[in-house]
Design brief:
Blueprint (H helix, E strand, L loop, with lengths): L1 E10 L2 E11 L4 E5 L6 H9 L4 E7 L2 E2 L5 H6 L2 E4 L11 H7 L6 H11 L1 H5 L10 H13 L5 E5 L7 H16 L3 E6 L2 H7 L2 E6 L2 E7 H6 L1 H7 L3
The structure holds adenosine-5'-triphosphate (ATP).
Length: about 230
């Protein structure tokens, strides 16, 4: 479903990510783990066309390189960005509308309110007045409004209570059963490895390890470096 090859990301003369190869199948959740600044967000931005990159990004067999972001969203990629970036002066429903690209708007909203009951209770509340966890759910729901084939989540658990972290993990499981591909970038390696099927470890812009998440979670070197054990 998602295939990256030879992907490099640059900011001016700085090369943040170099020659990445990554795949994620339909209905598979894949984690990108690594320290602050390793390049996780840069990869997600490059997939959506929001960073200067070279190499190939394919979704469902279609080459996205060179296409503008909106065309990539139409092709089935969506991002819930790091820091959430909900529109604070807009209501929950208005935020959902910002992620809408076509189809049956009322039905899509209803799907989201079904998936996130908290958002239903707050559908007319201004997003800026909601809790961090609620804003995170809204950011994910807004991304889902485009009915993506590949959902990218950038640091969805940052600063949130364990109960919300569990909800996000359960949500990833549910989306997988619907056939969605999930690419999760997380500094919280423990959560990321528990929530996904496979993972890639990123160090200063390079992939240094990859494999089934359960296997990486049991690897002594990964445990020492990323799980604080
Ligand atoms: P974090 O979780 O902190 O976002 P990350 O793994 O997602 O970390 P990136 O944000 O992708 O890492 O950053 C990778 C590298 O690229 C870092 O060295 C960072 O300083 C650099 N970088 C990121 N964005 C920019 C930018 N807009 N201009 C210049 N350098 C940047």
């Amino acid at each position: 479903m998602l295939e990256l090859s030879g992907l490099s990301v640059t900011y001016g003369k700085v090369r943040a990510v170099e020659d990445i190869a990554l795949t994620a199948a339909r209905g598979e959740a894949v984690a990108l783990i690594g320290a602050n600044g390793a390049g996780k967000s840069s990869i997600l931005k490059a997939i959506l066309g929001l960073a200067t990159s070279s190499g190939s990004v394919r979704v469902d067999g279609t080459e996205l390189t060179g296409r503008p972001s909106h065309a990539r969203v139409m092709r089935g990629v969506a991002l819930s960005p790091e820091g959430r970036h909900v529109f604070p002066q807009m209501s929950v429903l208005e935020n959902l509308e910002m992620g809408f690209i076509g189809g049956d708007f009322p039905a899509l909203c209803e799907d989201m309110l079904e998936l996130f009951p908290r958002l239903r209770e707050r559908s007319s509340q201004l997003a800026g007045s909601m809790s961090g966890g609620e804003q995170q759910m809204l950011a994910i729901a807004r991304a889902l409004m485009s009915r993506p084939k590949v959902l990218m989540l950038d640091e969805p658990t940052l600063g949130l209570a364990p109960i919300i972290v569990d909800q996000i993990r359960a949500l990833i499981g549910l989306l997988k059963t619907k056939g969605m591909t999930v690419l999760l970038a997380e500094q919280n390696a423990e959560m990321a490895l528990a929530a996904t099927d496979r993972a890639y470890v990123l160090e200063t812009g390079h992939i240094t390890a990859t494999g089934p998440s359960a296997k990486l979670a049991a690897d002594p070197a990964i445990r020492r470096a990323y799980l604080g054990l």
